[in-house]
């Protein structure tokens, strides 16, 4: 059965809507992570967050569970990895314009040259959400100039929107789409549901995709993304997807199993 976690080499846990909502741990989440840790199971927490694994780890710690950043993979971390792998050359650090977050700045500090003005070289623009301080209006214009000169557009993830305490916000995908249209370029996305995200995570865990089960709440970014690379999938109804949504979903987005919350998996962890 897909809900028997013992049959998989690695258990992959989405975060927002699966492990927590805002700053509140969801039912069974803390207990499940602790059981995976106690049994020395291979696991990872993954998210389309524009934050760093270290910052996400601190957030989980506030909820009562300690997770080493090595067990956390964020879309921001995937973007940083992609830029370093794609644009680094012997004796040459990439030139990067940060239109994203402080976390990206921290992860790439010392590993890249920062483009700060239109006159600087630029290999890549890393795009986040429009509300961040690094995405102020003047910086958007500078990013547009770099893109029109040939810089690559790297979107942390393709999320159209995301929920916040204020309601629905414009996501990275919306911001990147605006820039891509204005500059006539095609963005590269590094978060879920992109195959690059899941393959990079599997390499870090030393497992093959077909040996993994992913547990998440989003049919598009979690279920479809994981199924596309050969993973088994479990949908939890603690996030944005309803049972009716899952039942009506096409095969590519239909989970192998559905649970109400993570407490249903504790017996097999």
Please outline the helices and strands:
Layout: E1 10-14, E2 20-21, E3 24-25, H1 29-38, E4 42-47, H2 53-62, E5 72-74, H3 75-87, E6 95-99, H4 102-108, E7 113-114, E8 124-127, H5 137-148, E9 152-155, E10 161-164, E11 167-170, H6 172-183, E12 188-189, H7 195-205, E13 212-216, H8 219-228, E14 232-236, H9 243-248, E15 257-259
Parallel strand pairs: 1-4, 1-13, 4-5, 6-7, 6-8, 8-9, 9-12, 13-14, 14-15
Antiparallel strand pairs: 2-3, 10-11
Helix pairs in contact: 3-4, 5-6
Summarize the structure.
Helix content is 34%, strand content 21%.
Structure description:
- With 269 residues, the protein is of the alpha/beta class.
- Helices cover 34% and strands 21% of the residues.
- It folds into two domains: 121 residues, 3-Layer(aba) Sandwich (Rossmann fold), CATH 3.40.50; 95 residues, Rossmann fold (3-Layer(aba) Sandwich).
- The protein contains nine helices and 15 strands.
- The chain has a six-stranded parallel sheet with strand order 5-4-1-13-14-15, sandwiched between helices.
- The longest helix is centred in the N-terminal third of the chain and has 13 residues.
- The protein is globular, with a radius of gyration of 19 Å.
Features of the shown structure:
single chain, 269 residues, Rossmann fold, 2 domains, six-stranded parallel beta sheet, five-stranded parallel beta sheet, 9 helices
């Amino acid at each position: 059965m897909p809900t028997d976690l013992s049959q998989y080499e690695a258990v992959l846990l989405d975060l927002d809507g699966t492990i927590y909502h805002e700053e509140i741990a969801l039912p069974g989440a803390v207990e499940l992570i602790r059981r995976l840790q106690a049994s020395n199971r291979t696991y990872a927490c993954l998210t389309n967050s524009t934050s760093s694994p270290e910052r996400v780890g601190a957030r989980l710690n506030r909820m009562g569970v300690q997770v080493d950043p090595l067990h956390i993979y964020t879309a921001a971390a995937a973007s940083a990895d992609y830029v370093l792998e794609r644009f680094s050359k012997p004796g040459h650090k990439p030139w990067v314009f940060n239109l994203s977050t402080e976390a990206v700045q921290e992860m790439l500090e010392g590993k890249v040259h920062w483009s700060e003005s239109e006159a600087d070289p630029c290999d890549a623009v890393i795009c986040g959400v429009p509300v961040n301080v690094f995405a102020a209006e003047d910086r958007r214009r500078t990013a547009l100039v770099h893109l029109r000169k040939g810089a690559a557009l790297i979107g942390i993830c393709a999320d159209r929107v995301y929920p916040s305490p204020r309601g629905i916000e414009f996501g990275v995908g919306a911001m990147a789409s605006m820039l891509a249209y204005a500059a006539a370029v095609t963005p590269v996305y590094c978060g879920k549901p992109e195959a690059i995200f899941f393959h990079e995570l599997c390499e870090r865990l030393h497992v093959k995709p077909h040996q993994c089960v992913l547990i998440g709440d989003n049919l598009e970014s979690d279920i479809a993304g994981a199924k596309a690379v050969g993973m088994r999938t479990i949908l939890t109804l603690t996030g944005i997807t309803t049972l009716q949504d899952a039942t009506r979903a096409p095969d590519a987005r239909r989970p192998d199993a559905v649970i109400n919350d993570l407490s249903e998996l504790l017996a097999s962890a």
